[in-house]
Amino acid sequence: MVNRRELNPESSPEAAYGARLRRLREGRGWGQEDLAGIMEYSSQHISAVETARKPPTLRFSRSADRAFGIAETADTFERQYREIKHGSLLEGFQEYVKYEGRAAEIRLYEIGIIPGLLQTPEYARVLADSALRRGAITPEQATERVSYLAERQTALVRPRPPMMLVVMDESCIRRCVGGQEVMGAQLARLAEFAELPNTVLQIAPYDIGERRPFNLPMNLLTLSDLSVIAYAESQIRGHLERETTSVLPLLTAYHQLQAEALSQAASMAMINEARKGTP
Predict the structure, then answer these.
(1) Which among 74, 116, 175, 272 has most CB atoms closer than 10 A?
(2) What are the extents of the domains in the chain?
(3) What predicted TM-score, i.e. pTM, was given to this entire model?
(4) Which bin fits 243, alpha (ψ -120 to 50), beta or left (φ > 0)?
(5) Which CATH superfamily is domain 13-85 in?
């Protein structure tokens, strides 16, 4: 084959995407012209994606999934595209977000930082910029992380919003992120959230000690059919759980956490105390 460019799939997510596209195409015995005709793209476009000279798009990825008959599988090009676009997101998180946007009830527990759905844009930007300075993400991913969070928050503003029950470890409000001005606005946002008719906000104080049932953040969603799914993540891995036998003990633990946490009134008193000294 003339001018065939060899790829190292490990060199970048785009290269891995392109190498996989080429592998599946050649496995079908198709040339680039053949795939181009099926996907309704030019052969030059196919070549550019395969060699990572052009990044894939959502439309391209969905067209590739249809061409190869993998649209309904777990390993789609759309999923690979979204992993490239949201490169810093953990496995399972994108699927979780799909459920989150249509959940009837959302239960959150967070440690160390304000839960994403309650973050102000400024607070979220500080966290993204911090990850950028550490070299954990690219500038594009930092911007995408903030805009993606805004999309998640917007999805919850609907005619019948979900019931939201949030328990935050005390460390979430004691850890100053972005300086006094950013933190002051963030704590004010929590006060606004607590006043909504579909929310409950509680603080799990330090002094509950060993009675705290979770050592990692926990998300629990109740869907319209009353089924419950759970999502939890560590520093490097996320996991979405749908099995009832695994989820119900987590739901029980969340109820126990709520019982140990401060009431919403006492939680707001602690938050307002933390606001003293902020603009």
Answers:
(1) 116
(2) 13-85, 93-117+156-275
(3) 0.70
(4) beta
(5) lambda repressor-like DNA-binding domains (1.10.260.40)
